[in-house]
Design a protein that fits this description.
Layout (H helix, E strand, L loop, with lengths): L1 E2 L4 E4 L11 E9 L2 E9 L4 H20 L7 H6 L6 E2 L2 H16 L9 H6 L12 H8 L8 E3 L2 E3 L12 H15 L4 E6 L2 E5 L8 E6 L5 E7 L3 E6 L3 E5 L2 E4 L2 E2 L4 E2 L4 E8 L2 H26 L3 E6 L4 E4 L6 E3 L8 E4 L2
Parallel strand pairs: 19-21
Antiparallel strand pairs: 1-13, 2-10, 3-4, 4-8, 5-7, 6-7, 8-9, 9-12, 10-11, 11-20, 12-17, 13-14, 15-16, 17-18, 18-19
Bound molecules: adenosine monophosphate and magnesium ion.
The site of adenosine monophosphate has 19 residues, from helix 7.
Length: about 350
């Protein structure tokens, strides 16, 4: 299985001296199965170190709660206590509650109970395989987010149902880090959490952050300018395996149990909330272009960039003026979707 860790690259332009910004401090963290880079610009002595240390602690704590493989995590405990109520801490409850709402809003294109299918395809272990039809059908019978019973902070899963919050956890972590940085008095920060980029404020010199979108075939396809936003990409090229000339990607259509094949190479969401961006990048990838556009028109609250497998770029109108194509993609047309 090929695994491409960095599919959104961040171009951090150094703070210009004399432009009024603080000094940058960074930390690298290996967590949630990805390499994370945190950068804060501090205004006062020691502010950056303190904020970064708290941020690293927060990420590790979230990983400890949400991991599907760590036997001491809350998700592991719930997955291994079928039919019994398991108490959740505040962050896990908040994340699960919002994630379930997003599963419902996307009509199950995002489904946090798809884990047994993802495992059957071998994406959790690296031992990738093509499950037989009967196996997929029998596992599909267990996939249904609406059977997750969350009552206050008590989570109960029916027998056979397993949770994996991997499609939304990094987005949620980004939201928590932004809140933490604000509390620490930081005004300018940017974090890369695998395919998620989340920015606090603008660059110290007052200009927008520039976030590059990876091209499915490698290199860069485009550049986004953002202030106080999360940019989250889900792409088939991020994790896949090939067998007999066919490619099988890690994003599963929960309705079929097979990798989502909707003609999209990637779906990028720009939103104020990392959790929303993360959940919707996965969901819109599963939906494909037409349903994704319809979802955006109905729900709003975010903008998107879709890169199709035929090499087209489609953006929602809110990104006009802050997105341009780049590199090999530079001279291709950009289709703008309007309300
Ligand atoms: P992301 O990288 O955020 O798009 O999340 C993809 C990961 O979430 C995959 O590697 C799977 O572990 C899991 N997943 C795959 N398909 C879905 C889906 N339709 N809904 C929820 N989680 C999914
Ligand atoms: Mg996601």
């Amino acid at each position: 299985m090929k695994r491409l860790r960095f599919f959104v690259f961040l171009l951090l332009l150094a703070a210009l001296p004399g432009c009024g910004g603080g000094s940058p401090q960074s930390a690298d963290v290996l967590a949630m199965d990805t390499v994370m880079k945190l950068t804060v610009y501090s205004q006062t002595e020691g502010q950056g170190e303190a904020a970064l240390q708290k941020a690293v602690d927060e990420i590790k704590a979230l990983e400890g709660l949400l991991s599907v493989t760590d036997e001491s995590s809350e998700i592991y405990r719930a997955n291994h206590s079928p039919g019994r109520a398991v108490p959740l801490s505040e962050p896990t409850r908040a994340l699960l509650s919002d994630a379930l709402a997003l599963c419902a809003a996307t009509d199950g294109a995002l489904d946090v109970t798809v884990y047994p299918i993802v495992r059957a395809w071998g994406f959790t272990t690296g031992a990738c395989r093509i499950p037989v039809e009967e196996e997929i059908q029998s596992l599909l019978a267990q996939v249904d987010y609406s059977r997750v019973f969350l009552d206050g902070d008590a989570l109960t899963l029916p027998v056979g149902t397993e949770l994996d919050l991997g499609a939304v956890a990094k987005g949620f972590a980004g939201d928590r880090l932004m809140a933490l940085f604000r509390k620490e008095g930081v005004e300018s920060a940017i974090v890369e959490l695998g395919g998620n980029v989340h920015a606090l404020g603008c660059k110290p010199d007052g200009s927008p952050w520039q976030v590059a979108l990876q091209a499915p075939e490698g290199g860069f396809a485009g550049m986004l300018e953002i202030v106080d936003k999360a940019v989250v990409t889900s792409g088939g090229y991020q994790r896949f395996f090939e067998k007999d000339g066919a490619r099988y990607i890690h994003i599963i259509d929960p309705k079929t149990g097979y990798p989502a094949e909707t003609g999209l190479a990637s779906a990028t969401i720009v939103a104020g909330s990392g959790l929303l961006g993360d959940g919707l990048s996965t969901a819109l990838f599963v939906m494909g272009r037409e349903r994704a556009e319809a979802y955006w028109r109905t729900h709003g609250g975010f903008e998107f960039v879709l890169l199709t497998e035929t090499g087209r770029a489609v953006i929602s109108e809110g990104l006009e003026g802050c997105f341009h194509l780049y590199g090999e993609w530079e001279n291709r047309p950009v289709e703008v979707v309007r309300r």
